[in-house]
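About this split. The held-out portion is used to measure sequence recovery: a designer receives only the structure tokens and must propose an amino acid at every position. Recovery is the fraction of positions where the proposal matches the reference. Here is one held-out target exactly as it appears in the evaluation file.
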């Protein structure tokens, strides 16, 4: 009953905001005086393990040759169709066509919505995920649900295999006409609960080049109730938008309704990076030269990479366990809290790490 109530609050966009002066910034979705640290009091999952976002440090990355390029179905939406863009009080969200889906994941996932996270005009470091501690200017999330097992996103949201989110890191560069197809409508959703119709376009245009290179890990929603139900795909290469486009994102919208006497700017709506808790992050790319490694205990298929700045020899020790077996151990630990995840980390094949 508690989870159902929490879910209703999120899907119904019921967010309690304390009225503050317009110069009071929101830090990391700091919608309450004590900020995101208070989330676990009302939303227990927010204080659990397997939370998102995370920092992609070099020492936690493991190359997986089984990760395939994603296949995008129905992403080219004709202009005769329309998306609904809404200010939901903590982000700007665009509902997507149910004919859109993505494959080459454990299941087929149907698109539900996309939204953005950003910083503020004084410090444009609004991405949720970071790479070696580096923030990007903003971050786009395209949210999908497991349509092979669940009838809709409401049924999938709190399931361990329920959601798949594609994340695109944004940085400053030249003007981006594809993103402008969304950004030009921000002034029509200036205040909470305002909506506008956006002509259909090819959502694939919002994605970066070299889509076959990405980070993959199991994590959570980055806003309450923080269900650990997300299979994350964070693309390695960022997309560029102009400084003017970023400024529009950072300044156009408010968390409050149009008749609020003390409007609250919608800024810094990103969650801070979370504890890693010795999870596995798999990557579809590698750097350095490939070496064939023999396994001491039994035959196995492992790719060893000579990583720059490593002190170890190219013929680094290959553990006998395959990547597939490690994934199975990890998922078992995720669903069985009594299993020691640190033991799984000790079992990792260090020769598969990526620099």
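Reference sequence for scoring:
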């Amino acid at each position: 009953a508690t989870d159902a109530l929490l879910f209703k609050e999120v899907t119904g966009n019921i967010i309690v905001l304390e009225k503050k002066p317009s110069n009071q910034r929101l830090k990391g979705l700091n919608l309450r005086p004590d900020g995101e640290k208070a989330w676990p009091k009302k939303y227990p999952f927010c204080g659990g393990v397997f939370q998102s976002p995370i920092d992609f440090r070099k020492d936690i990355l493991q190359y997986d040759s089984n990760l395939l390029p994603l296949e995008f179905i129905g992403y080219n939406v004709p202009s005769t169709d329309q998306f609904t863009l809404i200010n939901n009080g903590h982000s700007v969200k665009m509902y997507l066509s149910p004919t859109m889906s993505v494959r080459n994941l454990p299941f087929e996932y149907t698109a539900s919505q996309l939204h953005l996270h950003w910083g503020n005009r004084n410090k444009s470091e609004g991405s949720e995920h970071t790479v070696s501690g580096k923030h990007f200017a903003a971050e786009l999330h395209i949210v999908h649900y497991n349509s092979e097992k669940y009838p809709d996103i409401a049924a999938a949201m709190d399931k361990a295999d329920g959601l798949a989110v594609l994340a695109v890191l944004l940085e400053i560069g030249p003007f981006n006409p594809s993103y402008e197809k969304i950004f030009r409508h921000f002034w029509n959703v200036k205040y909470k609960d305002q909506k506008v119709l956006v002509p259909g376009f090819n959502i694939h245009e919002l994605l970066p080049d070299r889509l076959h290179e990405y980070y993959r890990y199991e994590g959570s929603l980055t806003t309450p109730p923080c269900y650990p139900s997300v299979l994350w795909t964070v693309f390695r290469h960022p997309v560029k938008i102009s400084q003017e486009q970023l400024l529009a994102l950072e300044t156009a919208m408010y968390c409050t309704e149009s008749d609020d006497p003390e409007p609250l700017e919608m800024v810094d709506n990103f969650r801070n990076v979370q504890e890693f808790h010795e999870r596995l992050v798999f990557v579809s790319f590698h750097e350095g030269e490939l070496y064939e490694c023999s396994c001491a205990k039994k035959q196995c298929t492992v790719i060893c990479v000579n990583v720059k700045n490593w002190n170890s020899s190219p013929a680094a020790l290959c553990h006998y366990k395959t990547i597939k077996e490690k994934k199975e151990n990890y998922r078992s630990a995720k669903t069985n809290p009594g299993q020691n995840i640190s033991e799984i980390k000790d079992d990792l094949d260090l020769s598969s790490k990526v620099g």
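Annotator remark: Residues 323-335 form the longest helix (13 residues).
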